[in-house]
């Protein structure tokens, strides 16, 4: 499927595409990373998410890079963002541009943070491997709950382009405890039909743990990811190409 | 949700409703049952289905009662119908109006037929309990594959009314091996959103085996069925009724 740029007419769509090409996601992420490193940014654990307060310039970068949700507050000089578990850990562990404080108000090390994430989400290791796999390839990754999937991915900012894939993260190979989806044909039918109706394909990421546990974030480097797209087959449409 | 009668305009919809009330499904099923008993009808096992050849009058009743699919053949005086496993077993075991021959060309008794069904479909006992539960209440029950569910149910013939529910049959209580659906929130989101987009609700039938096995069809009487409908919750729509 080709990317579907947003816009009322052909010209507006072309403008969206040009804007995306002018400022690729890799560059936006790099700017966000540099800015957060420079300001020694720190967030804190809050329930099932991480909250971080940022300056005006960083607000723009957070929005452009599609990390978290802005939170309304009465503070004028600061903007708060609420990050999901995968998003926070990605900024912290993969981009190394965010510190996260625990309840004792001191920065958590990777190991402490890893245990926190796993205590909040049983299959965090698999979901995070899937999330980081796509973010590292500069896809914009957002929650997929409204489409009944784990994530949806965009080629660039959701303001410029429709998402192309709904993503389910499954744990293949040596165990199957990551996600109870796609065990029945009816689930395949349901998921591909729903995604098809909103012009998306189903992307399944099979995470193989290769016999490695998930006690520490160092296991992530040993996990492998197998990608498969799944689409509906229609005898009429598929005949003679 | 109110039934959605089919028709181009209000009058046509009213005609559909009147037609359904004039000839209720209970009456159609009774006529089919009587006719099949009278003609001593017999079908035979064929792969994952049962085939039965019927006279002209019975063809009409099969179509009206929504059992099976008519099969095109060159025979002029007979119409063949292909019945699904649940449909065939319902006519045979519950309505007692159809005999089914095995490979030796002699009628299978209930026990033989039960074993055949279970060899073709692992969780046949649960699916059949769900199917017969709805048919006994005079719902028209059809396969639900295109909506990613086990069945769809209609208040009357699909020519007169849209289906109101997509049905998933789950095995609750003492075991959970019937169907691997609805184990994750994302699956709930996916199913309710898809069904919502085609104006149906999700009906979940939880079958409790109550500690009884599924070695013979006599177990069915001891199974209990718990019905739940599940719909999406929207804060905007649900506030202030």
From TrEMBL, chains A, B:
GO MF terms, alphabetically ordered: nucleic acid binding; tRNA-intron lyase activity
Segments for region (Disordered): 1-20
Gene3D superfamilies from the UniProt entry: 3.40.1350.10, tRNA intron endonuclease, N-terminal domain
One cellular-component annotation, GO: tRNA-intron endonuclease complex
Family per record: Belongs to the tRNA-intron endonuclease family.
EC number: 4.6.1.16
Domain tRNA intron endonuclease N-terminal, residue spans: 42-114
Annotated tRNA intron endonuclease catalytic domain residues: 128-211
Catalysis: reaction(s): pretRNA = a 3'-half-tRNA molecule with a 5'-OH end + a 5'-half-tRNA molecule with a 2',3'-cyclic phosphate end + an intron with a 2',3'-cyclic phosphate and a 5'-hydroxyl terminus
Leading EC class: lyase
GO terms under biological process: tRNA-type intron splice site recognition and cleavage
Pfam families, per database record: tRNA_int_endo, tRNA_int_endo_N
Protein name: tRNA-intron lyase
PANTHER family, sorted: TRNA-SPLICING ENDONUCLEASE SUBUNIT SEN2
CDD domains (alphabetical): tRNA-intron_lyase_C
Coiled coil: none
């Amino acid at each position: 499927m080709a990317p579907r740029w947003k816009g009322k007419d052909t010209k507006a769509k072309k403008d969206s595409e040009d804007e995306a090409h002018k400022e690729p996601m890799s560059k936006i992420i790099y700017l966000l990373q540099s800015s957060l490193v420079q300001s020694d940014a720190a967030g804190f654990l809050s329930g099932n998410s991480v909250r971080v307060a940022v300056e005006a310039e960083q607000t723009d970068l957070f929005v452009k890079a599609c990390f978290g949700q802005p939170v309304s507050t009465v503070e004028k000089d600061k903007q708060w963002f609420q990050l999901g578990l995968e998003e926070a850990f990605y900024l912290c562990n993969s981009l190394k541009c965010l510190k996260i404080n625990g309840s004792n108000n001191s920065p958590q090390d990777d190991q402490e943070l890893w245990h926190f994430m796993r205590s909040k989400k049983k299959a965090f290791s698999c979901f995070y491997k899937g999330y980081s796999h796509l973010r590292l390839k500069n896809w914009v990754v957002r929650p997929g709950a409204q489409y009944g999937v784990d994530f949806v991915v965009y080629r660039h900012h959701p303001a410029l382009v429709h998402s192309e894939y709904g993503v389910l993260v499954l744990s293949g190979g040596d165990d199957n405890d990551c996600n109870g989806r796609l065990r029945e044909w009816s689930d395949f039918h349901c998921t591909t039909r729903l995604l098809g109706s909103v012009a998306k394909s189903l992307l399944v990421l099979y995470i193989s743990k290769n016999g490695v546990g998930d006690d520490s974030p160092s296991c992530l480097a040993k996990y492998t990811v197998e990608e498969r797209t799944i689409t509906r087959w229609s005898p009429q449409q598929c005949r003679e190409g």
